[in-house]
Amino acid sequence: KQEVTQIPAALSVPEGENLVLNCSFTDSAIYNLQWFRQDPGKGLTSLLLIQSSQREQTSGRLNASLDKSSGRSTLYIAASQPGDSATYLCASSGGTSYGKLTFGQGTILTVHP
Amino acid sequence: EADIYQTPRYLVIGTGKKITLECSQTMGHDKMYWYQQDPGMELHLIHYSYGVNSTEKGDLSSESTVSRIRTEHFPLTLESARPSHTSQYLCASSAWADRGGFYEKLFFGSGTQLSVL
Predict the structure, then answer these.
(1) B105:A99 CB<8 A
(2) Partners of A108 in the β-ladder
(3) What is the pLDDT of residues A37-87, one digit of tens each?
(4) Which of A4, A41, A45 sits opposite B113 (nearest CB)?
């Protein structure tokens, strides 16, 4: 059974700082890995999707990497802003849970001015 | 981008009531999902569907049921709500794509926050 773990559970940084969120998964037979953003009381917004054949994806100030062999993914946020404050979730698809996502518990990010 | 809608946004009901949470998407996606999320906890898949007349139970056991009579509609029903059903319910849909490898991107609705008293 796939297990996804995210560290840290919470992170507070000053505006402008670069930061890295970590995600690890136990089953390396994944089809893709996604990073989502969740704002309080709202649904999830897909940020980046990395297919199993890819090493990284970039969108604006966000860069996500994937290392299947070590079972790890990172989300890098450059020049953080207060508007980046949210919960960030990673989720894997495939392996024994083909076609369905297994989520981590998320990292609560606070960017203070 | 997909448009996926959930109603109601918030629901407070008494124990024993039958409720239906609505989920509709307008992009013609084949696959739809229901996830349950307790405060501060991870999302757990409770139901999914690969298309019309297809429904499967997810990883987390749930007393709810679902139906998929139309591609765009995937309602979730609780026959007799209990306080243990208090949670946030998130609906999602995705489309198949194959670019040399399977590719599935999820689009989520805003969720229904259910409180059972």
Answers:
(1) no
(2) A10, A87
(3) 999 877 888 899 888 888 999 999 999 999 999 999 999 999 999 999 999
(4) A41
How far apart CA A46 and CA A30 sit, in angstroms, is: 18
Residues written for chain A: 113
Name which of A100, A102, A105 to mutate to probe chain B: the one with the most chain B Cβ atoms within 10 A of its Cβ: A100
Q: Quick one: B97 exposed, middle or buried, by C-beta within 10 A (0-12, 13-18, 19+)?
A: exposed
Distance CA B89, CA A59 (A): 28
Report yes or no: B45 and B26 within 8 Å, Cβ to Cβ: no
The predicted structure's pLDDT at residue A98: 45
CA-based nearest residue in chain A for residue B99 = A51
Query: Which residue numbers of B have CB closer than 8 Å to A's CBs?
Result: 6, 31, 33, 35, 40-45, 48, 50, 58-59, 90, 92, 99-111, 113
Is the CB of residue A42 less than 8 Å from the CB of residue A87?
no
| CB within 8 Å: A42 and B100 | no
Is B89 exposed, middle or buried, given 0-12, 13-18 or 19+ CB atoms closer than 10 A? Answer: buried
